[in-house]
Give the backbone structure.
Amino acid sequence: ERGRLARLRHKPAITLDGERVDLLANIEMPEDTVGALKAGAVGVGLFRSEFLFMGREAQQLARLPDEEEQYQAYRRAVEGMQGMPVTIRTIDVGADKPLDGKSARQEHLNPALGLRAIRWSLADPAMFLTQLRAILRAAAHGEIHLLIPMLAHATEIRQTMALIDTAKAELDARSAVYGQCKLGAMIEIPAAALTLRLFLQHFDFLSIGTNDLIQYTLAIDRADEAVAHLYDPAHPAVLRLVADTIAECRRQGKGVSVCGEMAGDITFTRLLLGLGLRSFSMHPSQILAVKQEVLRADTSKLAAWAQGVLEADDPAFALTLPV
Ligand code: PEP
Ligand code: MG
């Protein structure tokens, strides 16, 4: 089976009815681009940049990676992908990704509902501006898409846009070389999935983070073993939010991808194709298995079948039915 899958590595992911599908890699470090290329990824759909900030040696804790160190890391990632696009997500620490060295938060608070991701960045604009300048400078070396995690509010979108402008102005002031990035937002809070019009006014593309979207839709802490049995990607409410996000982006001609675990789970490949998704980002180890599903799929038949899954009382069962 492994050998058979390996032969798919250089085969383009095109469905039986001729639909081209982008299978992209999720990475945590610039070196991971090696594995992404080996797996046949056509780009990086999610570079979780927080891993540059986490788990640093004790002597480095006092110093988060500065602009130069981040610039070099982002540049290595984009050069590593040899001309293919790289989506860099700004720092998403807090909750399940604690940042050592920052003050411990009070234990009775739920960090998943607290200061994490873009909320953290907006609370520390100097840190955020440093990261934005580093990403913009790396964009002079290849195609970088800038992705913002955990947005929910119009005010957060406005503040983020203003800080991106500020970062560019700072680079202009010192005559630094930088490139332009497409701008994207993660859809991973139900409030965002329910206010897509607002997001599509400001962003070039959306990326659906199903890991958090499931957590927040179902009120299930993704790190809590005691409720893990209720963490259900096939819950009708989750599927509805995913389906509506894909449909609205397609209606408006905007890019949309899924970068949560659902994108790499072959249980959901036919469903996501049927809902119109053409961009999947996942751990490189999943790419060949998903590609095999894509090669067997006929999207002209999957669309009606997918609507049936959405309307089923038991979507997990409906997913197993033949098309
Ligand atoms: C997600 O929430 O689905 C996602 C891709 O982001 P992370 O898993 O890093 O929170
Ligand atoms: Mg997330």
About this structure: Strands lie at 22-27, 44-48, 86-89, 144-148, 182-187, 205-208, 255-258, 279-282.
